């Protein structure tokens, strides 16, 4: 059981075997040795550590890397474009508006919408979203074609994202155009969109399987005519972080405009690649909620936020309404009829649940020991699971203290051995653990029990169970008879 959410957002949340700990400690002092954790207010170091801890981390982001935009980026949220290409997605107007408003309230800088050339409803929805008066900029995504551009500029969008495939695969098997034609059309479309006074971005589809000279040449051309952004797309999800770094860094040296990156997740690299793109100088990252899109989709909003928060929590907190993330993910998950994956960063069922005794002890002393993300920054709560065979006496002690029982450390170790013995047979609920602790405590208080008296403890537990069964039997008996009748 991994109940990491606070209010039952995960359908089957069961907290029965958990110790919920607010902030850092459960009745236990946080060490005052200078390594402050989450409990004592947040420090200015990354990762929730004190700045002294931060300085000791040789892998922390280095401010001296002048191209690095890890703490200076914009999100282009494409749930309503790339996300609509997810096999399960059908967004009616009401749902699109709800998603657009939620993303705006979260704080994304841009929302990208499906091409108005796709269908009459797509065009009408695009216009409707433009009229909402959202704080974020609204973009629409079109083919590199004047017909699409003419429709797009009439919708009221703040900008148009233009794309065309440049790899030999797409030039031969998709649109059939060569680089000369692509360049000529790109210039025409960009000039047209610019003439309408709105933002324009030019992107090559399948960039990582395109010829580098072709790429740099067309990007340089569109940069010269004043495109606002150029985009790189890992359309098939084939790129690795080193390749992303090299291409973005090379491009950074060739164009003066902003650089956007769009990364598919076919090999699970989308978040790492996005992070690396920022390190190399990209300025804009495409995301979708839960990563939905063609095939397995693109860089997920939540995962990217987790990754960037780990690098610079204060910057990410200042930009986005982090506690809204779970609500947005639930909204989109429901709209496309999927569950939020259990291993999802931040909102996954077990994202803030700690289990093994070694972890539990350290977490109770200072959550930074095993947490890079502070659950409270995302409106969530951490839990420590104790009713299992991997538990330890420190975790049990925290529960003893929560229950206001008085036991010595030696006694807690003794009763922990009993919990582990029982948990070897089946996981114990928190109620089970509490019963064991209360029976043990009253046995000690009454003098019926001393440390190491296993048989006496077994007898007390058996007697307690029998008494409870008798009590239940008295109230349950009539119901059984009634049901049988
Ligand atoms: C990698 C990506 O995700 S890119 C974005 C994908 N988004 C979409 O496809 C939006 C939804 N698409 C649609 O509604 C339709 O495909 C439309 C309206 C865009 C086009 O529909 P149709 O005219 O029926 O063409 P169809 O979809 O069969 O084929 C794509 C057409 O676009 C052309 N094309 C493909 N990519 C591009 C491009 N980037 N720039 C210009 N033309 C392109 C192809 O040559 C083909 O035209 P053709 O049939 O005249 O040769
Ligand atoms: O417009 C872009 O940059 C990307 C288009 C796209 O969805 C892709 O190439 O996967
Ligand atoms: Zn895509």
Could you explain how this protein is built, in words?
- By secondary structure, the protein is α/β, with parallel strands linked by helices.
- The chain folds into two domains: 74-335, Aldolase class I (TIM Barrel), CATH 3.20.20.70; 393-476.
- It has helices at 51-56, 93-106, 120-130, 146-153, 168-173, 179-195, 212-224, 241-252, 270-279, 301-311, 313-319, 325-335, 357-365, 393-402, 409-423, 430-446, 454-484; strands at residues 18-21, 74-77, 110-113, 137-143, 159-165, 199-205, 229-234, 258-263, 284-287, 353-354, 382-385.
- The chain is elongated.
- 2-oxoglutaric acid is lined by residues 82, 141, 161, 163, 203, 205, 231, 233, 235, 262, 264.
List keywords for this structure.
485 residues; alpha/beta; TIM Barrel; eight-stranded parallel barrel; 11 strands; disordered N terminus; disordered C terminus; binds 2-oxoglutaric acid; binds zinc ion; LeuA/HCS_post-cat
């Amino acid at each position: 059981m991994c109940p990491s959410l606070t209010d039952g957002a995960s359908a089957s949340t069961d907290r029965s075997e958990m110790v919920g700990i607010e902030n850092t400690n459960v009745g236990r002092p946080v060490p005052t040795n200078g390594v402050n954790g989450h409990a004592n207010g947040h420090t200015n170091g990354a990762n929730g550590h004190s700045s002294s801890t931060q300085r000791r981390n040789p892998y922390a982001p280095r401010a001296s890397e002048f191209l690095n935009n890890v703490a200076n980026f914009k999100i282009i949220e494409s749930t309503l474009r790339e996300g609509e290409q997810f096999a399960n997605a059908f967004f009616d107007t009401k749902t699109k508006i709800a998603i657009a408003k939620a993303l705006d309230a979260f704080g994304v800088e841009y929302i990208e919408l499906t091409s108005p050339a796709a269908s009459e409803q797509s065009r009408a929805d695009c216009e409707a979203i433009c009229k909402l008066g959202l704080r974020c900029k609204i973009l629409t995504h079109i083919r590199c074609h004047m017909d699409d551009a003419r429709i797009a500029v009439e919708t009221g969008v703040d900008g148009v994202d233009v794309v065309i495939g440049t790899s030999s695969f797409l030039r031969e098997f998709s649109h059939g155009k060569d680089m000369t034609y692509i360049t000529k059309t790109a210039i025409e479309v960009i000039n047209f969109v610019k003439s309408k006074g709105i933002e324009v971005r030019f992107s090559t589809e399948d960039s990582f399987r395109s010829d580098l000279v072709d790429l740099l040449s067309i990007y340089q051309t569109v940069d010269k005519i004043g495109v606002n952004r150029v985009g790189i797309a890992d359309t098939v999800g084939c790129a690795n972080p080193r390749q992303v770094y090299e291409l973005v860094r090379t491009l950074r040296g060739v164009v003066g405009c902003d650089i956007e990156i769009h990364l598919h997740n076919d090999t699970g690299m989308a978040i790492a690649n996005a992070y690396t793109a920022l390190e190399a100088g990209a300025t804009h990252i495409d995301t979708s909620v839960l990563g939905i899109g063609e095939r397995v989709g693109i860089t997920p909003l939540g995962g990217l936020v987790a990754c960037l928060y780990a690098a610079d929590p204060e910057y990410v907190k200042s930009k986005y309404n982090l506690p809204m993330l779970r609500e947005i993910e639930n909204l989109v998950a429901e709209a496309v009829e999927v569950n939020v994956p259990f291993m999802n960063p931040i909102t996954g069922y077990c994202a803030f649940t700690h289990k093994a005794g070694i972890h539990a002890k350290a977490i109770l002393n200072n959550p930074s020991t095993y947490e890079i993300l502070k659950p409270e920054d995302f409106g969530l709560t951490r839990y420590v699971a104790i009713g299992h065979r991997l538990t330890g006496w420190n975790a049990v002690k925290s529960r003893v203290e929560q229950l206001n029982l008085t036991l010595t450390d030696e006694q807690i170790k003794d009763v922990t051995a009993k919990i582990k013995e029982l948990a070897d047979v089946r996981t114990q609920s928190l109620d089970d653990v509490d019963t064991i602790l209360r029976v043990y405590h009253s046995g000690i208080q009454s003098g019926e029990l001393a440390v190491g008296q296993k048989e006496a403890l077994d007898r007390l537990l058996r007697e307690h169970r029998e008494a409870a069964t008798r009590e239940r039997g008295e109230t349950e008996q009539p119901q059984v008879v009634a049901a049988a009748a």
